Amino acid sequence: MNRRNLFLSGIAATLFGATPAGATQTYEVTHSDAEWRKLLSPAAYDVLRQQGTEAPFSSPLLNEHRAGTFDCAGCALPLFSSKTKYDSGTGWPSFWAPLPNAVLTARDNSLFMARTEVHCRRCGGHLGHVFTDGPPPTGLRYCMNGVALRFTPAPR
Fold it and tell me: Fewer Cβ close by (within 10 Å): the C or N end of the chain?
């Protein structure tokens, strides 16, 4: 990551409501750690509850092109419309905007870099990160872990 991208990531965090790391947040959907482990697959638990990352190009959702919504795998909240999905070439499902009132952000200083984490506003599940190198109209790239999402096709 170069200084320009680092700087722009910091601006995005400021502009898009990022909260300081470690800020206390309460969520509508809560479960004990043991309950989350029962409700989620091991891979989904690792990403949603432990801030893990799936391997690039491993998600079937990367090639999902039908109309519909991409929902939180932890609580089923609709997060992204298929209308905002695009191929970023990164190996993870990417979107240029979330649905209104769907996600929250927080600063993530792990791995010796400053990034903006994206999580579900209803259950707090870690979804991925947002970057400032996306397409118009927002210029944002919501780079999401497919295992943290479920696809719901639009009704015909």
Answer: C
* Predicted confidence (pLDDT) per residue in 70-93, tens digit: 999 999 999 999 999 999 999 999
Q: Which residue type occupies 104?
A: L
Catalytic residues: 143
Other CB atoms closer than 10 Å to residue 127's CB: what's the count? 30
Which superfamily does 3-19+30-153 belong to?
Peptide methionine sulfoxide reductase. (2.170.150.20)
Sequence-distant (≥ 6) Cβ neighbours of residue 134 within 8 angstroms: 86, 88, 94, 96, 140, 141, 142
Q: Are 94 and 143 in contact (CB under 8 A)?
A: yes
Distance CA 63, CA 48 (A): 21
Amino acid in position 130? V
Helix (H) or strand (E) holding 156: none
3-state secondary structure of 83: helix
The pTM score is 0.83
Report pLDDT digits (tens) over 8-65.
Answer: 444 444 444 443 334 467 899 999 999 999 999 999 999 999 999 999 999 999 999 9
